Amino acid sequence: MATLRGEPVDRPAVNLYELGGYIPHYRNSDPFNVYNDPSWTPLLDLAWEQTDLIQLVGLLAGHACPECVSEYVKREEYLENGSKFTRTTVEVAGRSLTSLTRRDPDIDTIWTLEHLLKDTSDLEAYIQLPDEAFTFITDIPAMAAMDEKMGDRGIVMVDTPDPLCVAAGLFSMEDYTIIALTEQELFHRLLVRISEGLYPAVRTVAEGFPGHLWRIYGPEYATEPYLPPYLFEEYVVRYTGHIVDLIRSHSGFARIHCHGRIKKALPYIVAMGTSAIDPVEPPPQGDVELADVRREYGRDLILFGNIEVSDIENMEPAEFRKVVEKSLRNGTIGDGRGFVLMPTSAPYGRTISSTTITNYQTMVELALNFST
What is the per-residue pLDDT for 24? Predict the structure, then answer.
C-alpha cells in the first residue's frame, strides 16, 4: 500500500502475479487442476510464504437476472478425448449465434475454437439482446471477507475487463480488427451496450469497497499493431476512462493491464488518470525500455513488471539473474511513484521444471535483498 500511495519503501515489492493472486487448491483432485501436480508445490509455497500477495477477486458475480438470460442463451458442456468443451448458443433477432471453447487437462487455459460473432449481421443482432443480458451483480461481502482473511499478509485487487475486452473477445482477432477499424459507428454501439451494464457494477464496488487496487484488462486490444493510436483514444479513453474515474473518486487505484507495444498508448493511459500499469514488457515483446518509462512517466504511474514469463521458464539461471538485476535498477531509477517486480504472466502447464523454480527463487531473493 505504501507503494500505491507513492510513499518511501525499504525495497521494491515483489509479486508473482497469478501465483500470488489466487488461492490454489493444491490437492484438489480435479483432472483439470494443473496445480495438484507435485512439481507446483515449491513454487506455490514460495509465492505464498515470501512474496507480496495481491489477491485477485472478480468484479462480476453473475447476471442480475439469470432466468432472463436463459431465454436467449444456452450452454452445453461435454467431455471428448479427455478435453472439456463448452458450446454456447445465443438466439436473438432471428439469428443463432454460436461459440465453442476447449479446456485441456494439462494446460490451464481455455482455447476458443469458434467465436460467437462472425460478421456485422451477428453484431447487429447481438446488441438487440435485452438489458438483462448486460446487467450484472457484485458480491462486496465476499470481497470484504477476502480482505479480512488477507489481513496484513497482502492486499485484495478487484479484477475487471473493460468494455473493449468484452467486445473484442466476441470475435476472432482478424474479424475484430477489421470491424473495429472499418465499422466504427457500429462498434461504438456495442461498446455503449456493454458499458451500460459494466459501469453500475464498477460504481457499486468502488463505493462499497473503497481504497483498493483494481486491475482493468482489455486496452491492449487497441494498441499497435492491431489498431492505430487514434482508436486507442476512441475505444479505451472514451470508455475505460470512466471506469478509472469511478475508482479514483472513491480513493481506489486503477491499474491498466496492457501487454505488447504500449509506447504510443502511454500518453493516453496517463491522461486517463491511471494510477499504475502492468506488465511493461521489454523488447521484443514490447516496444519500450523500463528505464525510459520510469524517467518519462514514473511520477505519474506505478510500474508493475517487467519480467517475461518466457524468460523465467527458458533462460539459464545465470543469465536470468542479470535480467532481474536490470529490471530492479531500471524500475527504481530516479524519482517515481513506485515499482513492483512482477512477471508478465504465470506458467500454465501441469509440470514445473527445476529451471523455472530456480529462476523464480532468484527473482524473489534479489527483490527481497534490494535496497531502494
Answer: 56
Whether 136 contacts 62, CB under 8 Å = yes
Q: Which CATH class is domain 2-64+135-368?
A: alpha beta
- Joined together, the cell numbers standing for residue 220 give 491492449
What's the longest Cα–Cα distance across the chain? 63
DSSP state of 236: I
Q: Where are the domains of the chain?
A: 2-64+135-368
| Cα–Cα distance list, 68 to 123, 129, 132, 134, 196 (Å) | 20, 10, 7, 11, 17
pLDDT of residue 29: 86
Name which of 281, 300, 324, 166 is nearest 235 in CA terms: 166
| Residues contacting 311, CB < 8 A, separation 6+ | 320, 323, 359
Give residue 23's pLDDT.
57
List CB contacts of 12: < 8 A, sequence separation 6 or more: 3, 328, 331, 332, 338, 339, 340, 341, 367, 370, 372
- Residue 51 binned pLDDT confidence (cut-offs 50, 70, 90): very high
